[in-house]
Amino acid sequence: FKFYELKNVRFENLEFLESAGSGIELTYCDNVTLKGCTVDSPRKHGIVVYGGKNNTIDGCNVRYCGLNGVILTGGDRQKLIPANNTLTNSRIIGAGQNNLSFGRLVFLSGVGNKITKNVIANSGGIGLVYYGNDHVVEYNNFSNLVSAMDDCGGVYTNYNVSDTGTLIRYN
User: Fold this and answer.
1) I want to staple 13 with a disulfide (CB 3.0 to 4.6 A). Which of 36, 134, 148, 168 is the partner?
2) How many helices (H) and strands (E) does the chain have?
3) Which residues does 151 contact at the CB level (< 8 Å), separation at least 6?
4) CA 105 distance to own-chain centroid
5) In the chain, where do the E strands start and end?
6) Contacts of 20 (CB under 8 A, 6+ apart)
7) Segment 44-74, tens digit of pLDDT
8) Euclidean distance between CA atoms 134 and 94, whole angstroms
9) pLDDT, tens digit, for every residue of 68-108?
């Protein structure tokens, strides 16, 4: 399912199974909540939040994605305006089924987004890769990662002097 510029909508307890593309894509959406949804075995990504602000993924199960489990982006890097997009209380299990090199359980970028209280597990590659500014990554359980790749980590970023202010704690 793809949504563009959707505002003030809540999806609860829906299942998205074995899609040919991504399970759910929110592009430039505001105030959209995905609560208790399941995305299982999409060929591409599980849940994508591209741009927009104040979107929430809460209590969702994202499993066995072909590429990335969750992509969470948003915010203005030039003006450092936060997006306040959030991934919380969710289980992201098994990514990179079709391409381990590009399969991250969680991909985070932009400004001012939050990853908290999630289980991020069971991937031969990276658990979380992040870029950007002023994110918060806390109280997550990272386990059983990086068993099939070199030069990476459970939490990973590349060197960029403009990527500052991200807080990673209590994981």
Assistant:
1) 36
2) 0, 20
3) none
4) 7
5) 2-4, 7-12, 15-17, 24-27, 30-35, 38-40, 47-50, 56-58, 61-63, 70-72, 86-88, 91-93, 106-108, 114-116, 119-123, 128-130, 136-138, 141-145, 155-156, 167-169
6) 43
7) 999 999 999 999 999 999 999 999 999 999 9
8) 27
9) 999 999 999 999 999 999 999 999 999 888 876 667 899 99
Three-class DSSP category at 39? strand
- Joined together, the tokens standing for residue 71 give 């992509």
The structure's pTM equals: 0.95
